[in-house]
Specification:
Distance between the termini: 43 Å
GO molecular function: hydrolase activity, hydrolyzing O-glycosyl compounds
CATH topology of the largest domain: Tachylectin-2, Chain A
Pfam family, one: GH43_C2
Keywords: Glycosidase, Hydrolase, Signal
Strand order of the largest sheet: 4-27-30-39-32-33-34-35
InterPro entries: ConA-like_dom_sf (IPR013320), GH43_C2 (IPR041542), Glyco_hydro_43 (IPR006710), Glyco_hydro_beta-prop_sf (IPR023296), Glycosyl_Hydrlase_43 (IPR051795)
Family: Belongs to the glycosyl hydrolase 43 family.
Radius of gyration: 24 Å
Length: 584
């Protein structure tokens, strides 16, 4: 009896201790600009979304009941017809910007901006501000409502009279707001200045909260890289004047060269069922040299989502816990009733789950798979006749670089991928190519991609031989260019290796592996080869695919490299495998 009692005590104690630890990032990989909300009416569940820029589907909705385990339950931007313009805008820094997720009166609302960075800053059509609504976060979201509003990163706040005020940050000058009807998009009064910030560069991601009869304006300043920070001001009136916190910034990693987590900022605040305050925000796992010289930093997983507990004393400004990989302290994480830490609803998987996708007949493409811009849906077909348990890819004319490393003019690029969710991982597929590739420059393979100017790939391609007949080669290559990177660090690579004779009649297996936190390997071999039997054809340094705004994805592509029209050939991908090995 005593042994049983002690075992029960230690079991309960272990459970309590586990509930006192947070492991960051909670949404690993490409998950920037998070916004979260707790909804008691939906079984005490937390919901979060993040920005997605030029990737589709966009605005993923993650749900959790314990703040530790997060499941993809829907995508608010899941239908091409919702925002077809995304297929035509230029630049990897364009697309779906920072969203805000809120819940009120039975309705979930996301406000965000579709940005076109190719337009001049003074052109107000550069920012298309939009509203998504749904009454079911596990299902489809409504078509977006467009409204006229200056700036980016809109966020709704309902005052005591029930009027919804939308804040935005305008032309790097500060915060503006106006009342907006969230079901029609009608702006009922002109936008007016709310707060100019503390003077830091690039103010963005403004949110307004009311607590203890104070209105608090939360802001990100300093730009989204090494000087990123969280600032705050408050006023007795929603319309100001606002007085900044005496100890701004309230949270930052700037000049903290000992922290692995850098670029900390872009925060949103929410409470749980017990009234505990929490903050989510973005960070990069780049290490201290990022603060010293961001041009030398290595963080291809991009901007990720962290969670920290917050103390918010009555009548005071909030106190944020500094971001670290493991956070323990005097706080209690939610303890969901029942066995499920994530909802059973929703059609996705855990954010850090592995992939073992066999493309079974009748199964849809998994909802966590991503396309670059709006896909041409006819270029992707699950389990076609005579090729069961495979994904048929019709080739695009454009390769991953597109016209200029920046644009595709709506033509589409055949590439389907998933987020890199682990510091160390392996991704591999099998490709049936022998009867598909017939002409010079046709190519299929696997790639790791940030955007059109930052990607590396390995594939099989046909090239004209001296006898003018196409011969198969393994091609390893890519491009690493960023406006944030010094010119001498850019790289363009292409290495062709004649396909070994005993591989010519075989399906081929291609693999990308993060062999450590700084390098990726690219390998290939005939189907039947074990991982250790694959031949490595090249390596890429992680700092060549450092993101500007997003993060790395890995997937498969098919292209004629500009030689032929759309759908020049069809090729078949099977046994899609992603295995996370370790978080660092």
């Amino acid at each position: 009896m005593k042994l049983l009692f002690l075992t029960s005590v230690f079991s309960l104690l272990g459970r309590s201790l586990a509930q006192l630890s947070i492991r960051n990032p909670i949404l690993p990989g490409f998950h920037p600009d998070p916004s979260c909300v707790f909804v008691a009416e939906w079984n005490n569940t937390f919901f979060c979304t993040t920005s997605t820029f030029s990737w589709f589907p966009g605005l993923p909705i993650y749900a959790s009941r314990d703040l530790l385990h997060w499941k993809l339950v829907s995508n608010a931007f899941s239908r091409p017809e919702q925002l077809p313009y995304l297929g035509y805008i230029n630049r990897g820094q364009s697309g779906i910007y920072a969203p805000t997720l809120r819940y009120r009166g039975g309705v979930f609302t996301i406000t965000t901006t579709l940005a076109n960075q190719a337009l001049p800053r003074e052109n107000l059509t550069r920012w298309d501000n939009i509203i998504f609504n749904t009454m079911d976060p596990y299902g489809e979201w409504d078509d977006p409502i467009h409204y006229y509003g200056p700036g980016i990163d809109p966020s709704p706040f309902w005052d005591d009279d029930g009027v919804a005020w939308l804040t935005s940050t305008f032309n790097s000058s500060g915060v503006v707001h106006a009342p907006v009807n969230l079901t029609t998009g009608e702006v009922t009064l002109p936008f007016k200045w709310l707060w100019l910030g503390t003077g830091g560069a690039s103010p963005e991601a403004a949110h307004v909260y009311k607590k203890d009869n104070w209105y608090y304006a939360l802001l990100a300043e300093g730009g989204t890289r090494e000087k990123h920070m969280v600032t705050m001001a408050r006023s007795r009136s929603l319309h100001g004047p606002y007085e900044g916190a005496p100890n701004n910034p309230l949270l930052t990693a700037y000049n903290n060269t000992e922290s692995y987590f850098q670029a900390v900022g872009h925060v949103d605040l929410f409470q749980d069922s017990e009234g505990q305050w929490w903050a989510v925000g973005l960070t990069v796992r780049a290490g201290g040299n990022y603060a010293e010289d961001p041009y030398q930093a290595n963080f291809p997983m991009g901007r990720e989502t962290f969670l920290v507990p917050v103390e918010w004393p009555e009548g005071e400004f909030p106190i944020f816990t500094n971001v670290s990989g493991t956070i323990s302290g005097d706080f209690l994480l939610p303890q969901p009733s029942g066995p499920n830490t994530v909802p059973i609803q929703g059609n996705g998987q855990l954010v850090d789950a592995d992939d073992e996708v066999n493309f079974d007949p009748g199964c849809p493409i998994p909802p966590h798979f991503l396309y670059w811009r709006i896909p041409l849906t006819r270029n992707y077909k699950v389990s076609p006749k005579r090729h069961r348990n495979s994904l048929a890819l019709r080739s695009s004319m454009l390769n991953l670089t597109g016209y200029d490393g920046d644009s595709s003019l709506g033509r589409g690029q055949t590439f389907i991928s998933r987020r890199q969710a682990h510091s160390l991982f392996k991704f591999n597929v099998e490709i049936d190519w022998q009867e598909s590739l017939k002409r010079d420059s046709e190519e299929v393979g696997v790639a790791i991609m940030q955007d059109q100017s930052q990607h590396f790939e390995i594939g099989v391609t046909l090239r004209l031989a001296p006898d003018a007949k196409p011969k198969p080669y393994i091609r390893f290559g890519g491009i690493g260019i960023s406006s944030f990177r010094k010119a001498e660090q850019t790289r363009w690579a292409e290495e062709l290796t004649e396909l070994p004779e005993d591989w010519v009649k075989s399906k081929l297996k291609f693999q990308i592996e993060a062999v450590n936190t700084t390098h990726y390997s690219f390998s290939a071999g005939p189907v039947g080869s074990k991982g250790e039997d694959l031949r490595v054809f090249g390596y890429t340094k992680g700092d060549l695919i450092v993101p500007i705004y997003s993060g790395a994805t890995v997937g498969v592509y098919a292209t004629s490299n500009g030689r032929y029209g759309e759908g020049a050939f069809e090729v078949y991908v099977s046994k899609w495998r992603y295995t996370g090995i370790k978080q660092v």
